[in-house]
Amino acid sequence: MTETPPAKRKCSGSDCDNDAGTLQCPTCLKLGMKESYFCSQDCFKKNWSTHKAAHKSQSSFLSNIFTPNVVSKPDPDTGTYNPFPTFPYTGALRPVYPLSERRVVPKLIPYPEYWKDGVPHSEMTFVGRTKIEILDEKKREGMRKVCRLAREVLDIAARAAVPGVTTDYIDEIVHKACVERDSYPSPLNYSNFPKSVCTSVNEVICHGIPDQRVLVDGDILNIDVTLYHGGFHGDLNETYYIGDKAKANPDAVRVVEAARESLDLAIKLVKPGGLFREYGNVIEKHAKSKKCSVIRTYCGHGINSMFHCSPSIPHYAKNKAVGAAKEGMCFTIEPMIALGTYRDKTWPDDWTSVTQDGKMTAQFEHTLLVTKDGVEVLTARLPDSPGGPIPMPSSEEKKPEVNGEATPQ
Amino acid sequence: MTASMTIDDEEEPPLLVDVEGEGDPDSEEPPVVKVPITIVTGYLGAGKTTLLNYILKAQHGKKIAVILNEFGNSADIEKTLTVNTGGEQVQEWLEVGNGCICCSVKDQGVNAIESLMDKKGAFDYILLETTGLADPGNIAPLFWVDDGLGSTIYLDGIVTLIDAKNIIKSLDEPAQDTIPTEGHDEHEGHEGPLMTTAHLQISHADVIVLNKSDLVTQEELQAVRERVQAINGLAKIHVTQQGQVPNLEGFLLDLHAYENVESLDVAHKGHSHLDPSITTITIQVPVLEAEQLPALDEWLRSILWDSTLPSSDSTVANIQAESHEIHRLKARIPLSNGDVKIVQGVRDIFEIRDAPSGSSTSSEGKIVIIGKRLLGKSFKESLLSMIRR
């Protein structure tokens, strides 16, 4: 807990000479107006009729409530614009619109149920949310196939992720690679997600929408790929360093490697009888040892003929998750690790999730099949997969990092 | 998005927020004021609406939100909610984000309430009125949020209203639509006493309000009380007329039923066979060594997650008996090192945690279980053989 004594502040109430403690007007806080401290609720109430005028003068107030009609003017050179110009962004990243047209999947490729109306109906049934399916050998083979294809697509996307290309370009690469493999890119129109892959840059925790943002040297980029093939979904993601600047940034390396290692540690616990609630304990312990935090809002999930189903796998410690792994279950573990706060905020696009302090986050994900005596990492790296662990930049510290540890299996 | 999110021009000032602890992003738990949520269940006609209206009227100066309609049963929830501020009632919309259910841990209803409080300032209390036929065991887990999620609401407890005149009939001669189908195992060729939604509403309750007591005789009221206590020996019972109650705090509000576990006094042990479907059982547990806690945890996992009673001769015994179904579990377990552990469970979800410091110690531990098909099984022997392994 924090022990910092509050600085002496004066109450904002008119005719009030009291010192203010730490009580602030919640509306002002929302609007980013920092200095509105009051000594008490009573004093605040007395001053409400005049104080609230301050909210009105803040032009962003309306836009916090209504989706803005006005958008920023398109950049005359590129034609791009920020669709939510008054949104209080938490970091430097902005959406760069317009999004490209929705990409088309050839009709010959089997579509998942949500391709048209965006609703994953079978995931919403009672069974979809509570029962954990045990896959027979035929279904396991189906999962192996789609996960292997998903790994190939992620690797292709990762090789294309270099300074100077847009995340929309990554989306195009992923989409084409899926289609070439007779696969539907699962994110496309899942709960109305507009694109074929999630691209999450820097402070974006997950669910970033590919747009016209150009990758720059020093970014970190998570690419989250899911394919639907032969009736099954295969899901994985990795975070990549964009350019040499990122690899030389000790903070970037610390958070990316902490995320990579915490996933590897959690996977070691996966075996029949292993408890779902334990994975979060080792993930949080490792994150803390690297002075990082664990995002709480998003969790791993069951995956098979449904994109997301039970079990839910929390990544934080001391959770009450029910159940143990059994042979034939398939689920993901996908820890999101942050340099600063674990608290998240969602952009008005209803998808992009960012850290509240705007600091970097990183994530890694595998689809796992529980075997008779352990686990099969269905989305395991291939010998030539791009990315992979790197050491801490030497200037920062000499301490040897525990690494070179290939993904289990 | 909805038209009712108007700007709060004429509104009361929101509650100030305490920003102490800000500025250190690494600090694990910035202090959050948590608002209690009480689930109110009961059949149509039991008097839920009357009681809630009474609370809204009686609690001047408190900001109480009453959430109506069913909840947690369907994914497409965009529900209204009544907020009472200083005697005036306002309708609000709960805004639910995109439908991505499975990759978010928190229930959408919880998120919707949190975001409404973000906009409008925190409430003092939230009351969730369920439909007459809601199974509270499906709803409670949604609001029993992991501490790690830092939610601004917490589950305070479940209050069930009972119509004293009609409850016995509801339990014994259920209408077809009061027999629950989701999540219960009644369709496996099992022949036995029927379990109704009334049973579920009683078995999960932390407080039971025996309403309409003026419509029955003293003897009838006593019979109802005994029947209810045979099902749920842990719940506090209050007898009322027209949903009027003298004190709300500690009676309907501020129950803290999912936090500390104190004495665990079970009412009317002798009557446990009164109801054929659901019963309350008590298990006395000796003071445990800290090293025995993993065995206790394993035992709880077995009985709660797998509905299996581990037996010392792990062969036939538990296969033959029909498996039990546990609705609520509470325990207080003193350890030989002076620590005290408490266990809270609802359906298959449970948690072992430290008792608050300064709470009383005792020479014996106790586990109380409420559920179906508990009788005639040796829970105590099963537990003892597990921890003495």
Automatic annotation (TrEMBL), chain A:
One GO term (biological process): proteolysis
User: What range(s) does the C6H2-type domain occupy?
Assistant: 8-62
Region of interest: Disordered: 380-409
Sorted keywords for this record are: Aminopeptidase, Cytoplasm, Hydrolase, Metal-binding, Protease, Zinc, Zinc-finger
Q: Which GO terms describe its cellular component?
A: cytosol
Q: Which molecular function GO terms apply here?
A: initiator methionyl aminopeptidase activity; metalloaminopeptidase activity; zinc ion binding
EC main class here is hydrolase
Provide the binding site for Zn(2+) 3: 224, 235, 365
Q: Which PROSITE patterns match?
A: MAP_1, ZF_C6H2
UniProt: Zn(2+) 4 binding residues: 235, 301, 334, 365
Reactions mediated catalytically: Release of N-terminal amino acids, preferentially methionine, from peptides and arylamides
Pfam families found in the cross-reference section:
Peptidase_M24, zf-C6H2
Relay the cofactor remark from the entry. Answer: Binds 2 divalent metal cations per subunit. Has a high-affinity and a low affinity metal-binding site. The true nature of the physiological cofactor is under debate. The enzyme is active with zinc, cobalt, manganese or divalent iron ions. Has high activity with zinc; zinc cofactor is transferred into the active site region by the ZNG1 zinc chaperone. Binds 2 divalent metal cations per subunit. Has a high-affinity and a low affinity metal-binding site. The true nature of the physiological cofactor is under debate. The enzyme is active with cobalt, zinc, manganese or divalent iron ions.
Supply the EC number(s).
3.4.11.18
Ranges that cross the membrane: none
Locations listed in the record: Cytoplasm
Where along the chain is a protein bound? Answer: 207, 308
Q: List required co-factors.
A: Zn(2+); Co(2+); Mn(2+); Fe(2+)
Role played: Cotranslationally removes the N-terminal methionine from nascent proteins. The N-terminal methionine is often cleaved when the second residue in the primary sequence is small and uncharged (Met-Ala-, Cys, Gly, Pro, Ser, Thr, or Val).
Q: How would you summarize the oligomeric state and partners of this protein? A: Associates with the 60S ribosomal subunit of the 80S translational complex.
Q: Which family does it belong to?
A: Belongs to the peptidase M24A family. Methionine aminopeptidase type 1 subfamily.
- This chain belongs to the protein called Methionine aminopeptidase
TrEMBL record, chain B:
Classification via SUPFAM superfamilies: P-loop containing nucleoside triphosphate hydrolases
- Which CDD domains does this one have? CobW-like (cd03112)
Q: Name one GO cellular component term.
A: cytoplasm
Gene3D superfamilies the UniProt entry points to: CobW-like, C-terminal domain (3.30.1220.10), P-loop containing nucleotide triphosphate hydrolases (3.40.50.300)
The record places domain CobW/HypB/UreG nucleotide-binding at 36-237
Which intervals carry biased composition (Acidic residues)? 7-29
**Where is the stretch described as Disordered?**
1-31
Q: Which Pfam families match?
A: cobW
* InterPro entries hit by this protein: CobW-likC_sf (IPR036627), CobW/HypB/UreG_nucleotide-bd (IPR003495), P-loop_NTPase (IPR027417), Zinc-reg_GTPase_activator (IPR051316)
This chain's protein is named CobW/HypB/UreG nucleotide-binding domain-containing protein
- What organism does the record attribute this protein to? Hymenoscyphus albidus
